[in-house]
Amino acid sequence: MTKSKKGGLRTMPFIIANEAFEKVAGVGLHANMIFYLILEYHMSGPEGANVLFLWGAISNFLPIIGASISDSFLGRFRVIALGTFTALLGMILLWLTAIIPAARPPKCNPFIEICPAAKPRQLGFLFSSFVLMSIGAGGIRPCSLAFGADQFHNPDNPNNERILQTFFNWYYASVGLSYMASITLIVYIQDKAGWVVGFGVPVGLMLFSTVMFLLGSSLYIKPKANKVLFTGFGQVISAAWENRHLPLPPTDADRWYYYKGSKLTAPTEKLRFLNRACVVQNREKELDLDGKAIEPWKLCTVKQVEELKAIIKVLPIWSSGIMIAVTISQYTFPQLQAKSMDRHIFSEKLKIPPGSFGVFAILTLTIWVAIYDRVVVPLLSKFTNRPRGLSYRQRIGIGLAISCVAMAVAALVERKRRSAAIREGLADNPEGVVALTAMWLVPQNCLIGLAEAFNAIGQIEFYYSQFPKTMSSIGVALLSLGMAVGNLVGSLIVTILNRVTGSGGKVSWVSTNVNRAHYDYYYWILCILSVVNFFYFIACSWAYGSCEDIKVWDEGEAMKEHEMPPTKESPIVHPRT
To answer: Which superkingdom is the protein from (predicted)?
Structure first.
Protein backbone atom coordinates (compact mmCIF):
# COMPACT_ATOMS: atom_id res chain seq x y z
CA MET A 1 0.00 0.00 0.00
CA THR A 2 1.41 3.40 -0.97
CA LYS A 3 1.72 5.95 1.74
CA SER A 4 -0.76 8.81 1.48
CA LYS A 5 0.80 12.04 0.21
CA LYS A 6 -1.83 14.15 1.92
CA GLY A 7 -2.97 14.69 5.50
CA GLY A 8 -1.11 13.58 8.60
CA LEU A 9 0.83 15.43 11.25
CA ARG A 10 2.46 17.81 8.76
CA THR A 11 -0.90 19.57 8.31
CA MET A 12 -1.24 20.18 12.06
CA PRO A 13 0.72 23.48 12.23
CA PHE A 14 -1.39 25.05 9.48
CA ILE A 15 -4.76 24.05 10.97
CA ILE A 16 -3.85 24.81 14.57
CA ALA A 17 -2.31 28.17 13.63
CA ASN A 18 -5.51 29.12 11.82
CA GLU A 19 -7.73 28.32 14.82
CA ALA A 20 -5.37 29.74 17.44
CA PHE A 21 -4.76 33.11 15.77
CA GLU A 22 -8.45 33.49 14.90
CA LYS A 23 -9.23 33.03 18.60
CA VAL A 24 -6.53 35.46 19.74
CA ALA A 25 -7.70 38.11 17.29
CA GLY A 26 -11.48 37.62 17.68
CA VAL A 27 -11.73 37.15 21.45
CA GLY A 28 -9.23 39.95 22.09
CA LEU A 29 -11.36 42.39 20.12
CA HIS A 30 -14.57 41.42 21.92
CA ALA A 31 -13.07 41.53 25.42
CA ASN A 32 -12.35 45.28 25.43
CA MET A 33 -14.93 46.49 22.91
CA ILE A 34 -17.26 48.20 25.41
CA PHE A 35 -14.73 50.98 25.98
CA TYR A 36 -14.31 51.55 22.24
CA LEU A 37 -18.08 51.88 21.86
CA ILE A 38 -18.40 54.29 24.79
CA LEU A 39 -15.27 56.42 24.25
CA GLU A 40 -15.16 56.56 20.45
CA TYR A 41 -18.80 56.13 19.42
CA HIS A 42 -20.33 57.83 22.49
CA MET A 43 -22.71 55.01 23.26
CA SER A 44 -24.22 54.71 26.71
CA GLY A 45 -23.51 51.64 28.82
CA PRO A 46 -26.86 50.00 27.98
CA GLU A 47 -26.43 50.73 24.26
CA GLY A 48 -22.94 49.26 24.26
CA ALA A 49 -24.14 46.24 26.24
CA ASN A 50 -26.90 45.61 23.70
CA VAL A 51 -24.45 45.83 20.80
CA LEU A 52 -22.15 43.28 22.46
CA PHE A 53 -25.05 40.99 23.36
CA LEU A 54 -26.31 41.07 19.76
CA TRP A 55 -22.81 40.53 18.39
CA GLY A 56 -22.45 37.53 20.69
CA ALA A 57 -25.84 36.19 19.60
CA ILE A 58 -24.91 36.36 15.91
CA SER A 59 -21.46 34.87 16.54
CA ASN A 60 -23.00 31.91 18.38
CA PHE A 61 -25.82 31.33 15.91
CA LEU A 62 -23.87 31.45 12.63
CA PRO A 63 -21.65 28.40 13.40
CA ILE A 64 -24.81 26.28 13.15
CA ILE A 65 -25.41 27.60 9.64
CA GLY A 66 -21.71 27.24 8.84
CA ALA A 67 -21.75 23.58 9.86
CA SER A 68 -24.84 22.94 7.70
CA ILE A 69 -23.28 24.61 4.64
CA SER A 70 -20.05 22.71 5.20
CA ASP A 71 -21.64 19.28 5.51
CA SER A 72 -24.28 19.79 2.83
CA PHE A 73 -22.72 21.91 0.10
CA LEU A 74 -19.20 23.33 0.16
CA GLY A 75 -17.14 21.02 2.36
CA ARG A 76 -15.04 21.97 5.37
CA PHE A 77 -11.97 23.34 3.57
CA ARG A 78 -13.91 25.88 1.52
CA VAL A 79 -16.02 27.00 4.46
CA ILE A 80 -12.94 27.51 6.67
CA ALA A 81 -11.14 29.36 3.87
CA LEU A 82 -14.12 31.63 3.22
CA GLY A 83 -14.63 32.16 6.96
CA THR A 84 -10.97 33.06 7.49
CA PHE A 85 -11.00 35.60 4.65
CA THR A 86 -14.32 37.09 5.82
CA ALA A 87 -13.09 37.43 9.42
CA LEU A 88 -9.93 39.13 8.16
CA LEU A 89 -12.00 41.56 6.11
CA GLY A 90 -14.15 42.35 9.16
CA MET A 91 -11.08 43.04 11.30
CA ILE A 92 -9.63 45.31 8.62
CA LEU A 93 -12.88 47.32 8.56
CA LEU A 94 -12.78 47.64 12.35
CA TRP A 95 -9.16 48.76 12.14
CA LEU A 96 -10.14 51.40 9.59
CA THR A 97 -12.74 52.79 11.99
CA ALA A 98 -9.86 53.56 14.35
CA ILE A 99 -7.61 54.96 11.60
CA ILE A 100 -10.09 57.16 9.72
CA PRO A 101 -11.35 60.08 11.88
CA ALA A 102 -14.45 60.53 9.72
CA ALA A 103 -15.54 56.99 10.60
CA ARG A 104 -16.19 58.12 14.19
CA PRO A 105 -17.91 61.05 15.90
CA PRO A 106 -15.72 64.02 16.95
CA LYS A 107 -13.40 63.40 19.89
CA CYS A 108 -15.24 63.80 23.19
CA ASN A 109 -15.26 62.26 26.69
CA PRO A 110 -18.79 60.92 27.35
CA PHE A 111 -17.97 60.35 31.03
CA ILE A 112 -17.71 64.08 31.76
CA GLU A 113 -19.66 65.85 28.99
CA ILE A 114 -22.58 65.40 26.60
CA CYS A 115 -21.19 64.10 23.31
CA PRO A 116 -22.71 63.99 19.80
CA ALA A 117 -24.08 60.61 18.79
CA ALA A 118 -22.57 58.63 15.94
CA LYS A 119 -24.14 59.10 12.51
CA PRO A 120 -25.98 56.19 10.85
CA ARG A 121 -23.25 55.77 8.20
CA GLN A 122 -20.59 55.62 10.92
CA LEU A 123 -22.53 52.99 12.85
CA GLY A 124 -23.19 51.11 9.61
CA PHE A 125 -19.44 50.96 8.93
CA LEU A 126 -18.75 49.73 12.47
CA PHE A 127 -21.55 47.17 12.53
CA SER A 128 -20.48 45.83 9.12
CA SER A 129 -17.14 44.86 10.65
CA PHE A 130 -18.93 43.03 13.48
CA VAL A 131 -21.16 41.12 11.06
CA LEU A 132 -18.23 40.10 8.86
CA MET A 133 -16.28 38.85 11.89
CA SER A 134 -19.33 36.86 13.02
CA ILE A 135 -19.71 35.32 9.56
CA GLY A 136 -16.03 34.41 9.63
CA ALA A 137 -16.37 32.78 13.04
CA GLY A 138 -19.40 30.89 11.70
CA GLY A 139 -17.18 29.31 9.09
CA ILE A 140 -14.08 28.59 11.16
CA ARG A 141 -15.35 27.43 14.56
CA PRO A 142 -17.67 24.52 13.62
CA CYS A 143 -15.32 23.10 10.99
CA SER A 144 -11.76 23.53 12.24
CA LEU A 145 -11.61 20.59 14.67
CA ALA A 146 -13.48 18.23 12.32
CA PHE A 147 -11.28 19.26 9.38
CA GLY A 148 -8.20 18.57 11.47
CA ALA A 149 -9.54 15.12 12.37
CA ASP A 150 -10.11 14.45 8.64
CA GLN A 151 -6.34 14.67 8.12
CA PHE A 152 -5.74 11.68 10.41
CA HIS A 153 -8.65 9.41 9.46
CA ASN A 154 -6.79 6.24 8.49
CA PRO A 155 -8.28 3.15 10.15
CA ASP A 156 -5.64 0.93 8.51
CA ASN A 157 -2.86 2.63 10.46
CA PRO A 158 -2.37 0.90 13.86
CA ASN A 159 -1.04 4.20 15.28
CA ASN A 160 -4.01 6.21 14.02
CA GLU A 161 -5.65 6.58 17.44
CA ARG A 162 -2.43 7.78 19.07
CA ILE A 163 -1.77 10.30 16.28
CA LEU A 164 -5.33 11.58 16.47
CA GLN A 165 -5.00 12.02 20.25
CA THR A 166 -1.77 13.98 19.71
CA PHE A 167 -3.62 16.33 17.37
CA PHE A 168 -6.48 16.77 19.85
CA ASN A 169 -4.07 17.52 22.69
CA TRP A 170 -2.27 20.20 20.70
CA TYR A 171 -5.56 21.59 19.44
CA TYR A 172 -7.09 21.88 22.92
CA ALA A 173 -3.88 23.40 24.31
CA SER A 174 -3.73 25.98 21.51
CA VAL A 175 -7.34 27.07 22.07
CA GLY A 176 -6.84 27.44 25.82
CA LEU A 177 -3.64 29.45 25.35
CA SER A 178 -5.36 31.57 22.70
CA TYR A 179 -8.09 32.64 25.12
CA MET A 180 -5.48 33.52 27.73
CA ALA A 181 -3.39 35.51 25.26
CA SER A 182 -6.37 37.38 23.83
CA ILE A 183 -7.77 38.54 27.18
CA THR A 184 -4.36 39.54 28.52
CA LEU A 185 -1.94 40.57 25.75
CA ILE A 186 -4.36 41.98 23.17
CA VAL A 187 -6.35 43.88 25.79
CA TYR A 188 -3.10 45.20 27.33
CA ILE A 189 -1.91 46.46 23.93
CA GLN A 190 -5.22 48.23 23.35
CA ASP A 191 -5.08 49.76 26.82
CA LYS A 192 -1.50 51.01 26.51
CA ALA A 193 -0.91 51.66 22.78
CA GLY A 194 -4.37 52.82 21.73
CA TRP A 195 -6.98 51.55 19.33
CA VAL A 196 -5.03 51.88 16.07
CA VAL A 197 -2.25 49.60 17.31
CA GLY A 198 -4.67 47.53 19.43
CA PHE A 199 -6.82 46.71 16.39
CA GLY A 200 -3.85 46.50 14.02
CA VAL A 201 -2.22 43.63 15.94
CA PRO A 202 -5.29 41.34 15.58
CA VAL A 203 -5.38 42.19 11.85
CA GLY A 204 -1.76 41.08 11.53
CA LEU A 205 -2.48 37.88 13.47
CA MET A 206 -5.53 37.12 11.35
CA LEU A 207 -3.55 37.77 8.15
CA PHE A 208 -0.91 35.32 9.39
CA SER A 209 -3.71 32.84 10.18
CA THR A 210 -5.10 33.15 6.65
CA VAL A 211 -1.70 32.75 4.98
CA MET A 212 -0.82 29.73 7.13
CA PHE A 213 -4.07 27.94 6.36
CA LEU A 214 -3.83 28.53 2.61
CA LEU A 215 -0.14 27.52 2.50
CA GLY A 216 -1.12 24.04 3.61
CA SER A 217 -3.83 23.69 0.95
CA SER A 218 -1.91 21.19 -1.19
CA LEU A 219 -1.32 18.96 1.85
CA TYR A 220 -4.92 18.70 3.06
CA ILE A 221 -7.33 15.82 2.68
CA LYS A 222 -10.54 17.56 1.58
CA PRO A 223 -13.60 15.33 2.03
CA LYS A 224 -16.55 16.35 -0.10
CA ALA A 225 -19.87 17.43 1.32
CA ASN A 226 -22.09 14.36 1.33
CA LYS A 227 -25.06 14.81 3.60
CA VAL A 228 -28.03 17.09 4.03
CA LEU A 229 -28.62 18.01 7.67
CA PHE A 230 -32.06 18.03 9.24
CA THR A 231 -33.77 16.58 6.15
CA GLY A 232 -34.70 13.47 8.13
CA PHE A 233 -36.33 15.60 10.84
CA GLY A 234 -38.38 17.44 8.23
CA GLN A 235 -39.48 14.14 6.74
CA VAL A 236 -40.69 12.86 10.13
CA ILE A 237 -42.72 16.01 10.78
CA SER A 238 -44.19 15.90 7.28
CA ALA A 239 -45.09 12.21 7.51
CA ALA A 240 -46.59 12.58 11.00
CA TRP A 241 -48.78 15.43 9.78
CA GLU A 242 -49.76 13.56 6.62
CA ASN A 243 -50.84 10.56 8.72
CA ARG A 244 -52.28 12.53 11.64
CA HIS A 245 -55.69 10.85 11.36
CA LEU A 246 -54.32 7.29 11.36
CA PRO A 247 -55.01 5.15 14.44
CA LEU A 248 -51.81 3.95 16.11
CA PRO A 249 -51.26 0.17 16.09
CA PRO A 250 -50.00 -1.68 19.19
CA THR A 251 -46.27 -1.50 19.85
CA ASP A 252 -45.82 -5.20 19.03
CA ALA A 253 -47.74 -4.95 15.76
CA ASP A 254 -46.06 -5.72 12.43
CA ARG A 255 -46.89 -2.33 10.95
CA TRP A 256 -43.84 -0.31 11.90
CA TYR A 257 -41.40 0.62 9.16
CA TYR A 258 -37.70 -0.08 9.74
CA TYR A 259 -34.75 -1.20 7.66
CA LYS A 260 -33.79 -4.84 7.63
CA GLY A 261 -31.36 -5.57 10.47
CA SER A 262 -32.31 -2.48 12.44
CA LYS A 263 -32.38 -2.82 16.22
CA LEU A 264 -35.17 -0.24 16.47
CA THR A 265 -38.26 -2.12 15.35
CA ALA A 266 -40.95 -0.20 17.27
CA PRO A 267 -41.18 3.40 18.54
CA THR A 268 -41.24 4.38 22.20
CA GLU A 269 -44.38 5.62 23.91
CA LYS A 270 -43.15 9.16 24.53
CA LEU A 271 -44.28 11.80 22.01
CA ARG A 272 -46.63 9.23 20.48
CA PHE A 273 -48.06 11.66 17.94
CA LEU A 274 -44.81 11.31 15.94
CA ASN A 275 -45.21 7.53 15.77
CA ARG A 276 -47.69 7.93 12.90
CA ALA A 277 -44.73 8.83 10.67
CA CYS A 278 -43.50 5.22 10.72
CA VAL A 279 -46.83 3.36 10.37
CA VAL A 280 -47.04 1.21 7.24
CA GLN A 281 -50.56 1.16 5.78
CA ASN A 282 -49.98 -0.81 2.59
CA ARG A 283 -46.59 -2.43 2.04
CA GLU A 284 -47.16 -3.06 -1.67
CA LYS A 285 -47.96 0.58 -2.38
CA GLU A 286 -45.57 2.27 0.05
CA LEU A 287 -42.41 0.13 -0.25
CA ASP A 288 -40.27 -0.69 -3.28
CA LEU A 289 -38.70 -4.06 -4.06
CA ASP A 290 -35.76 -3.31 -1.74
CA GLY A 291 -38.12 -2.57 1.15
CA LYS A 292 -37.46 1.17 1.13
CA ALA A 293 -40.13 3.87 1.30
CA ILE A 294 -41.24 5.11 -2.11
CA GLU A 295 -42.20 8.49 -0.65
CA PRO A 296 -39.83 9.28 2.28
CA TRP A 297 -41.81 12.42 3.12
CA LYS A 298 -44.85 10.26 3.88
CA LEU A 299 -43.21 7.25 5.53
CA CYS A 300 -40.13 7.27 7.79
CA THR A 301 -38.21 4.62 9.71
CA VAL A 302 -38.59 4.06 13.44
CA LYS A 303 -35.00 5.24 13.84
CA GLN A 304 -35.76 8.56 12.14
CA VAL A 305 -38.72 9.09 14.45
CA GLU A 306 -36.71 8.29 17.58
CA GLU A 307 -33.89 10.63 16.51
CA LEU A 308 -36.34 13.54 16.27
CA LYS A 309 -37.87 12.54 19.61
CA ALA A 310 -34.40 12.63 21.18
CA ILE A 311 -34.01 16.25 20.06
CA ILE A 312 -37.47 17.33 21.22
CA LYS A 313 -37.12 15.62 24.60
CA VAL A 314 -33.94 17.50 25.55
CA LEU A 315 -35.29 20.93 24.57
CA PRO A 316 -36.76 21.77 28.03
CA ILE A 317 -33.44 20.96 29.71
CA TRP A 318 -31.63 22.83 26.95
CA SER A 319 -33.79 25.90 27.59
CA SER A 320 -32.62 25.95 31.22
CA GLY A 321 -29.15 26.77 29.88
CA ILE A 322 -30.30 30.09 28.41
CA MET A 323 -30.20 31.96 31.72
CA ILE A 324 -26.68 30.82 32.59
CA ALA A 325 -25.65 31.99 29.13
CA VAL A 326 -26.84 35.47 30.18
CA THR A 327 -24.63 35.42 33.29
CA ILE A 328 -21.61 34.09 31.37
CA SER A 329 -21.96 36.82 28.73
CA GLN A 330 -21.56 39.79 31.11
CA TYR A 331 -18.89 41.75 29.25
CA THR A 332 -20.01 45.34 29.82
CA PHE A 333 -20.81 46.19 33.42
CA PRO A 334 -18.01 44.25 35.15
CA GLN A 335 -15.50 46.12 32.96
CA LEU A 336 -17.01 49.50 33.85
CA GLN A 337 -16.78 48.49 37.51
CA ALA A 338 -13.15 47.41 37.13
CA LYS A 339 -12.26 50.72 35.47
CA SER A 340 -13.47 52.58 38.56
CA MET A 341 -11.44 50.45 41.00
CA ASP A 342 -7.78 50.19 41.96
CA ARG A 343 -6.37 47.70 39.45
CA HIS A 344 -2.75 47.71 40.61
CA ILE A 345 -1.33 44.33 41.52
CA PHE A 346 1.93 43.59 43.38
CA SER A 347 3.29 47.10 42.66
CA GLU A 348 2.30 50.56 41.44
CA LYS A 349 3.83 49.80 38.03
CA LEU A 350 1.70 46.74 37.26
CA LYS A 351 -1.93 47.50 36.46
CA ILE A 352 -4.50 45.01 35.13
CA PRO A 353 -6.61 46.33 32.21
CA PRO A 354 -10.36 46.34 32.96
CA GLY A 355 -11.04 43.97 30.09
CA SER A 356 -8.61 41.34 31.39
CA PHE A 357 -10.47 40.28 34.52
CA GLY A 358 -12.35 37.65 32.50
CA VAL A 359 -9.13 35.65 32.43
CA PHE A 360 -9.87 34.53 36.00
CA ALA A 361 -13.03 32.78 34.76
CA ILE A 362 -11.08 30.97 32.05
CA LEU A 363 -8.29 30.01 34.46
CA THR A 364 -10.84 28.63 36.93
CA LEU A 365 -12.60 26.67 34.19
CA THR A 366 -9.34 25.16 32.92
CA ILE A 367 -7.92 24.32 36.36
CA TRP A 368 -11.18 22.84 37.64
CA VAL A 369 -11.58 20.61 34.57
CA ALA A 370 -8.11 19.18 35.16
CA ILE A 371 -8.73 18.70 38.90
CA TYR A 372 -12.20 17.26 38.36
CA ASP A 373 -11.00 14.79 35.75
CA ARG A 374 -7.99 13.51 37.66
CA VAL A 375 -8.83 14.00 41.35
CA VAL A 376 -12.54 14.56 41.99
CA VAL A 377 -13.91 11.92 39.59
CA PRO A 378 -11.92 8.99 41.09
CA LEU A 379 -13.08 9.99 44.59
CA LEU A 380 -16.73 10.57 43.67
CA SER A 381 -16.98 7.40 41.59
CA LYS A 382 -16.32 5.35 44.73
CA PHE A 383 -19.45 6.78 46.36
CA THR A 384 -21.75 7.27 43.35
CA ASN A 385 -20.79 4.15 41.36
CA ARG A 386 -20.65 6.35 38.27
CA PRO A 387 -17.52 6.32 36.08
CA ARG A 388 -17.73 10.13 35.69
CA GLY A 389 -18.48 10.79 39.37
CA LEU A 390 -21.71 12.75 38.91
CA SER A 391 -24.52 12.24 36.45
CA TYR A 392 -24.90 14.56 33.48
CA ARG A 393 -27.93 16.34 34.90
CA GLN A 394 -26.32 16.68 38.33
CA ARG A 395 -23.42 18.55 36.74
CA ILE A 396 -25.80 20.78 34.79
CA GLY A 397 -27.73 21.56 37.97
CA ILE A 398 -24.59 22.28 40.00
CA GLY A 399 -23.48 24.73 37.31
CA LEU A 400 -26.83 26.52 37.48
CA ALA A 401 -26.67 26.70 41.29
CA ILE A 402 -23.15 28.15 41.22
CA SER A 403 -24.26 30.78 38.68
CA CYS A 404 -26.89 31.94 41.22
CA VAL A 405 -24.16 32.33 43.85
CA ALA A 406 -21.94 34.16 41.33
CA MET A 407 -24.61 36.79 40.68
CA ALA A 408 -25.28 37.21 44.41
CA VAL A 409 -21.55 37.75 45.03
CA ALA A 410 -21.44 40.22 42.11
CA ALA A 411 -24.32 42.18 43.64
CA LEU A 412 -22.70 42.32 47.09
CA VAL A 413 -19.33 43.40 45.69
CA GLU A 414 -20.96 46.12 43.59
CA ARG A 415 -22.88 47.38 46.62
CA LYS A 416 -19.59 47.67 48.50
CA ARG A 417 -17.90 49.44 45.55
CA ARG A 418 -20.78 51.88 44.99
CA SER A 419 -21.03 52.73 48.69
CA ALA A 420 -17.29 53.47 48.76
CA ALA A 421 -17.58 55.68 45.65
CA ILE A 422 -20.41 57.76 47.14
CA ARG A 423 -18.62 58.01 50.48
CA GLU A 424 -15.53 59.32 48.69
CA GLY A 425 -17.54 61.96 46.80
CA LEU A 426 -17.30 60.29 43.39
CA ALA A 427 -21.05 60.06 42.65
CA ASP A 428 -20.76 62.48 39.73
CA ASN A 429 -17.28 61.44 38.68
CA PRO A 430 -17.53 58.06 36.91
CA GLU A 431 -13.85 58.30 35.90
CA GLY A 432 -12.74 58.56 39.52
CA VAL A 433 -10.95 55.58 41.05
CA VAL A 434 -12.40 54.18 44.27
CA ALA A 435 -10.01 53.25 47.08
CA LEU A 436 -11.03 49.61 46.70
CA THR A 437 -8.97 46.94 44.99
CA ALA A 438 -10.41 45.47 41.80
CA MET A 439 -9.40 42.05 43.08
CA TRP A 440 -12.84 42.06 44.75
CA LEU A 441 -14.11 41.19 41.25
CA VAL A 442 -12.07 37.98 41.09
CA PRO A 443 -14.43 35.76 43.16
CA GLN A 444 -17.44 36.37 40.91
CA ASN A 445 -15.31 35.66 37.82
CA CYS A 446 -14.01 32.45 39.37
CA LEU A 447 -17.56 31.36 40.26
CA ILE A 448 -18.72 32.07 36.70
CA GLY A 449 -15.85 29.98 35.33
CA LEU A 450 -16.73 27.15 37.73
CA ALA A 451 -20.41 27.35 36.79
CA GLU A 452 -19.47 27.18 33.13
CA ALA A 453 -17.18 24.20 33.70
CA PHE A 454 -20.01 22.22 35.30
CA ASN A 455 -22.90 23.35 33.11
CA ALA A 456 -21.45 23.61 29.60
CA ILE A 457 -19.54 20.34 29.75
CA GLY A 458 -22.47 18.66 31.51
CA GLN A 459 -24.78 19.77 28.71
CA ILE A 460 -22.48 18.41 26.00
CA GLU A 461 -22.10 15.04 27.73
CA PHE A 462 -25.85 14.83 28.40
CA TYR A 463 -26.65 15.43 24.73
CA TYR A 464 -24.02 12.89 23.66
CA SER A 465 -25.59 10.29 25.95
CA GLN A 466 -29.09 10.81 24.58
CA PHE A 467 -28.30 10.96 20.85
CA PRO A 468 -26.96 8.29 18.49
CA LYS A 469 -23.33 8.80 17.57
CA THR A 470 -24.30 10.07 14.12
CA MET A 471 -26.00 13.02 15.85
CA SER A 472 -23.20 13.85 18.29
CA SER A 473 -22.35 17.16 16.58
CA ILE A 474 -25.86 18.41 17.37
CA GLY A 475 -24.87 18.58 21.05
CA VAL A 476 -22.31 21.31 20.37
CA ALA A 477 -24.82 23.03 18.06
CA LEU A 478 -27.42 23.09 20.85
CA LEU A 479 -24.93 24.63 23.27
CA SER A 480 -24.02 27.29 20.72
CA LEU A 481 -27.69 27.99 20.05
CA GLY A 482 -28.32 28.33 23.80
CA MET A 483 -25.55 30.92 24.01
CA ALA A 484 -27.09 32.81 21.08
CA VAL A 485 -30.53 32.89 22.71
CA GLY A 486 -28.92 33.81 26.05
CA ASN A 487 -27.29 36.86 24.47
CA LEU A 488 -30.65 37.94 23.04
CA VAL A 489 -32.30 37.52 26.45
CA GLY A 490 -29.46 39.50 28.06
CA SER A 491 -30.02 42.33 25.60
CA LEU A 492 -33.76 42.28 26.34
CA ILE A 493 -33.18 42.45 30.12
CA VAL A 494 -30.83 45.45 29.79
CA THR A 495 -33.25 47.24 27.44
CA ILE A 496 -36.24 46.75 29.75
CA LEU A 497 -34.33 47.78 32.88
CA ASN A 498 -32.91 50.87 31.17
CA ARG A 499 -36.34 52.03 29.99
CA VAL A 500 -38.25 51.26 33.18
CA THR A 501 -35.72 52.49 35.75
CA GLY A 502 -34.55 55.44 33.66
CA SER A 503 -37.99 56.90 32.97
CA GLY A 504 -39.09 60.26 34.35
CA GLY A 505 -35.58 61.70 34.34
CA LYS A 506 -34.28 59.18 36.92
CA VAL A 507 -30.82 57.62 36.66
CA SER A 508 -31.11 54.17 35.12
CA TRP A 509 -29.91 51.17 37.09
CA VAL A 510 -27.62 50.38 34.14
CA SER A 511 -26.44 53.93 33.45
CA THR A 512 -22.96 54.62 32.07
CA ASN A 513 -22.25 56.52 35.29
CA VAL A 514 -21.27 53.48 37.32
CA ASN A 515 -21.48 55.42 40.60
CA ARG A 516 -24.99 56.76 40.06
CA ALA A 517 -26.31 53.53 38.55
CA HIS A 518 -27.38 50.49 40.53
CA TYR A 519 -25.49 47.59 38.97
CA ASP A 520 -26.05 45.78 42.25
CA TYR A 521 -29.81 45.79 41.59
CA TYR A 522 -29.14 44.54 38.06
CA TYR A 523 -27.11 41.64 39.43
CA TRP A 524 -29.84 40.84 41.97
CA ILE A 525 -32.34 40.67 39.09
CA LEU A 526 -30.06 38.19 37.33
CA CYS A 527 -29.66 36.25 40.60
CA ILE A 528 -33.43 36.00 41.11
CA LEU A 529 -33.97 34.91 37.51
CA SER A 530 -31.16 32.35 37.89
CA VAL A 531 -32.77 30.92 41.06
CA VAL A 532 -36.13 30.62 39.28
CA ASN A 533 -34.34 29.00 36.36
CA PHE A 534 -32.66 26.51 38.72
CA PHE A 535 -36.02 25.27 40.00
CA TYR A 536 -37.29 25.22 36.41
CA PHE A 537 -34.38 22.92 35.56
CA ILE A 538 -35.24 20.62 38.47
CA ALA A 539 -38.82 20.36 37.17
CA CYS A 540 -37.61 19.68 33.61
CA SER A 541 -35.14 17.07 34.83
CA TRP A 542 -37.87 15.32 36.82
CA ALA A 543 -40.25 15.40 33.85
CA TYR A 544 -37.55 14.03 31.54
CA GLY A 545 -37.44 10.80 33.50
CA SER A 546 -35.01 8.03 32.71
CA CYS A 547 -32.06 8.64 30.41
CA GLU A 548 -32.25 5.10 29.09
CA ASP A 549 -35.49 4.88 27.09
CA ILE A 550 -33.40 3.76 24.14
CA LYS A 551 -30.31 1.86 25.17
CA VAL A 552 -29.26 0.71 21.69
CA TRP A 553 -29.16 2.66 18.43
CA ASP A 554 -28.52 1.01 15.10
CA GLU A 555 -24.86 2.02 14.93
CA GLY A 556 -24.08 0.41 18.29
CA GLU A 557 -24.64 0.85 21.97
CA ALA A 558 -25.86 4.19 23.23
CA MET A 559 -23.02 6.16 24.79
CA LYS A 560 -22.46 5.20 28.40
CA GLU A 561 -20.72 7.49 30.86
CA HIS A 562 -17.40 5.68 30.51
CA GLU A 563 -17.58 6.27 26.73
CA MET A 564 -18.09 10.01 27.04
CA PRO A 565 -15.43 12.28 25.57
CA PRO A 566 -12.95 13.36 28.26
CA THR A 567 -13.63 16.69 29.89
CA LYS A 568 -10.46 18.16 28.42
CA GLU A 569 -12.65 18.89 25.42
CA SER A 570 -13.95 21.87 27.39
CA PRO A 571 -11.83 24.52 25.63
CA ILE A 572 -13.55 23.63 22.37
CA VAL A 573 -17.02 24.13 23.77
CA HIS A 574 -16.00 27.30 25.52
CA PRO A 575 -18.86 29.61 24.56
CA ARG A 576 -17.12 32.93 24.74
CA THR A 577 -16.76 34.88 21.54
So the answer is: Eukaryota
